[in-house]
Amino acid sequence: MLDNFATGGTRAGTKVFTPTEASKRQIKVHDETGTRFGNQANTVFGEAPRRYEDAYALKTADGGALVLFSHTHTQTDTVANSGLQLNSGKDDRAWLHDVPRTSIRYTFVCNDAATVPAKAEPSRLIGYTCARTNAFGLPAPTQLHRA
Questions:
Q1: pLDDT tens by residue, 24-72
Q2: Of the residues 88, 94, 95, 102, which has the maximum number of CB atoms within 10 A of its CB?
């Protein structure tokens, strides 16, 4: 769910879903990714236009539903100071090649599965998977230090 990645679940994430291993894992990605560079670079998550707008639901025997849906989010990494650069990893070279950057914006499409109870209770995120679908960024001036 987008809010778990974008804010660590502080908006809709904790209001719509009962905490589950899947939702806790999304929040952990937010927390760990946002601090992985220390004071050398910043990471900001954001909303992106949804690539897949359809949601699919199956009615369960107890009157609830199993819902499958997608969300799209961005992750923007930016160096904190001039003189630093970000270098693409092997998974990003298809988009970024080996050109050092001062900022990189990644786009992810995630597929989520949730259960919705028949009674008026919060839903449960039971699983998700995400894949990077794009990356681009500003080239760094030459001769900078790695972040």
A1: 888 788 788 888 888 999 999 888 888 788 999 999 999 999 999 998 8
A2: 102
Overall pTM surpassing 0.85 (yes/no): no
**Amino acid identity at 94:** A
Cβ contacts of residue 79 below 8 Å, gap of 6+? 40, 41, 85, 86, 102, 103, 140, 147
| Measured CA distances, 37 to 42, 52, 78, 86, 105 (Å) | 7, 31, 10, 10, 15
Would the CA dihedral through 49, 51, 54, 57 be positive or negative? negative
* Under 8 Å between Cβ of 37 and 77: yes
CB of 50 closer than 8 Å to CB of 71: yes
End-to-end CA distance of the chain: 29
CB-count burial class (<10 Å; 0-12, 13-18, 19+) for 146: exposed
Nearest to 1 by CA among 127, 104, 106: 127
